[in-house]
Amino acid sequence: MTKEIRLLTLDQYEDMMELSQFAFQYEVPPANYAEARNRFEHEEAERWGIYLEGKLAAQLGLLEFHTYIGGKRFAMSGVAGVSTWPEFRRQGLVAELLHHSLVQMKEKGQTLSFLHPFSVSFYRKFGWELYTDLKTYKIDTSLMPPRTSYNGTIKRVAIDYELLNPIYQAYAKRINGALDRSEAWWNYRIKSSKKGQTVVYFDTAGEPQGYVIYVVKNRGLLVHEFIDLTEEARLALWSFLSQHDSMIDQLEMKVAADDGQAYLLANPRIKQEIMPYFMARIVDAEAFLREYPFEASGEETSIVLDIQDEHAPWNEGIYQISIDSDGTANVQRLSGENNQETIQTGIGALAAMLTSYKRPTELLRYGQIHGDRHFVEQLERRIPVRTTFLPDFF
């Protein structure tokens, strides 16, 4: 049987759409077909497929993104649309595409990759690891925050890149794992997937300090995005949402796992659910470690990492990481015999640590990394504590 990995283009668009609609159980209405094709043509992405005997058997997309880690911008590839026709499943085709994709990412200088897993255990086998959770609030109207006065103003607006993106970007730089959204992402993805109303909070100086995108339907208020840069903005936007009390029975909102709104309620006994969300993978360990913004400290720190990565062999090896007092790292791959104490880690556990999803001492306790506790604690002190959150989906 002839097998070929191909870069998919508009010439294969019909093949791709047929498989995608079958695999993800949706249908593009004829009226939206031209728009979907136009988005495909202009989206910053590559799509790869495996053809068997001339038929598309499996495919995936590699979306070109940037994300923020420690306030620093990193090139990231978003894996999406992974699908296989049932008659070709369990033949290792997706594994081939993932290995091929990792090579493509490295060649493009994309040091990270994110994906939304259909199965966490499946993607863990290939080096991806959980990096963020989603917390869902369901707050009955009677338990919502009280309406309070505020000094600024709230204005209803259209979704506008020039107005909203600076607010969003200031917020995204504070957390780990959020996208640096392009104008096209706002226009193609946010506008289509987060329909409803948008309001912006302006402080007394007229500066925008937060926004909410939400929809009211069937006596429910669903918050698509709640972004606040100041406590003043947070209080004002919650007060605004509480003004909808006569129209709704419940508010639903997805937030970062460590969001503290429930604690601030008069009655915190609301429905909360935390679910694992997206996974991350380090594509190029050496390049990522060189650019990683370690925590500033009054001293220099030297750590030796022994990294295992069977699916991206260029990452395998022992690395001497010398971290300056300002958090800058000098990374040297060691060759030959090494007599220094090392921290042994798989590529997935390394991603969990460096995204701040899990602390090194926690992973040491679980047996997911190995090494002398003294050196693990040294590493932990140099990894910033940050919220991980992705207010997007792909």
Provide an overview of this structure.
- By secondary structure, this protein is of the alpha+beta class.
- It has 3 domains: 3-115, Aminopeptidase; 135-277, Gcn5-related N-acetyltransferase (GNAT) (Aminopeptidase), CATH 3.40.630.30; 285-381, 2-Layer Sandwich (Nonspecific Lipid-transfer Protein, Chain A).
- It contains 12 helices and 17 strands.
- The protein has a 12-stranded mixed sheet, with helices on both faces. It has a 5-stranded mixed sheet with strand order 15-14-13-16-17.
- The longest helix has 15 residues, at 93-107.
- The protein is globular.
- The model has no long low-confidence stretch (mean pLDDT 96).
Write a brief structural summary.
The protein is α+β, with helices and mostly antiparallel strands. The chain has helices at 13-23, 30-42, 93-107, 120-124, 161-172, 183-193, 231-242, 261-264, 285-291, 347-354, 360-366, 373-381, and strands spanning 3-8, 45-52, 55-69, 72-84, 112-115, 129-140, 153-157, 197-202, 208-217, 220-228, 250-256, 271-282, 301-308, 317-323, 329-334, 343-346, 369-370. The strands form 2 sheets. A 12-stranded mixed beta sheet has the order 1-2-3-4-5-12-6-11-10-9-8-7, sandwiched between helices. It has a 5-stranded mixed beta sheet with strand order 15-14-13-16-17.
CATH level 4 superfamily of the largest domain: Gcn5-related N-acetyltransferase (GNAT)
The value of Rg in angstroms is 23 Å
Q: Rough shape?
A: globular
Task: Identify the quaternary structure here.
Answer: single chain
Percent of sequence in beta strands: 25-35%
Structural class computed from helices and strand pairing: alpha+beta
CATH architecture of the largest domain: 3-Layer(aba) Sandwich
Number of E-type strands:
17
Strand order of the largest sheet: 1-2-3-4-5-12-6-11-10-9-8-7
* The CATH C-level class name of the largest domain: Alpha Beta
| Sheet having the most strands | 12 strands, mixed
Overall mean pLDDT stands at 96
Number of distinct helices: 12
Helix content: 25-40%
**What is CATH's topology name of the largest domain?**
Aminopeptidase
Terminal CA distance: 33 Å
Count of structural domains: 3
Which sequence of SSEs, written as H and E, runs from N to C? EHHEEEHEHEEHHEEEHEHEHEEEEHHEH
